[in-house]
Amino acid sequence: TTTTTTTTTTTTTTTTTTTTTTTTTTSTVPGDTCLTAVGCEAAPPQAQFCDNATLTLDCGAERVIKVAGAFYGRLSNDLCVDPLERNDSMVLTTCFLDLDVLVAEECEGESSCELQACNAAVGSDPCFGTYKYLQVDYQCVDEDDLNEPIDCGEPQEPTTTTTTTTTTTTTTTTTTTTTTTTTTTTTTTTTTTTTTTTSTTTTT
Q1: How far apart are CA 28 and CA 13, in angstroms?
Q2: How far apart are CA 122 and CA 124, in angstroms?
Q3: Going by C-beta distance under 8 Å and a sequence separation of 6 or more, which residues neighbour residue 58?
Q4: Could you read off the pLDDT of 130-147 as tens digits, one per residue?
């Protein structure tokens, strides 16, 4: 007799992964809005420190920079306090170098650009002994409006939009285990045969 038993076990594992991505987008500024960007002078003022004094203009992907004006020097006591606290380094407020042309060559028509506020980058020191800053007034405009006259409207802060995207990924793993058991029974039959012999003797 042969008996076969088959057992099948199925295990299903489901893993769900949820990924949330948050993207922050800053709106481009309308073309009739003038922005002012200020970068403080490198301190110490040596050329090797210029990388520590960068100023970035950014109009986003849809608009380009249109320079309204730029200078390097000091026209105010309210901007850029001298980190080295040198004597009388902020007293003079009537000294500046006009950088309209230089900044326009670097940034006009670009969606973003980076400038350095240091003597080596602008080519000279217009106010020796005075702690200076680079100031740029600019607009973000459509590329077709680059040649239009600059007309600054009421200042307006860019708005920030935050978008959250949630992605759910489901992974299913199925494991099947099959167990087979076979039982064999063998029956043996033994036959025994017995023979009897009878002898008859006759006497006369």
Answers
A1: 48
A2: 6
A3: 111, 112
A4: 999 999 999 999 999 888
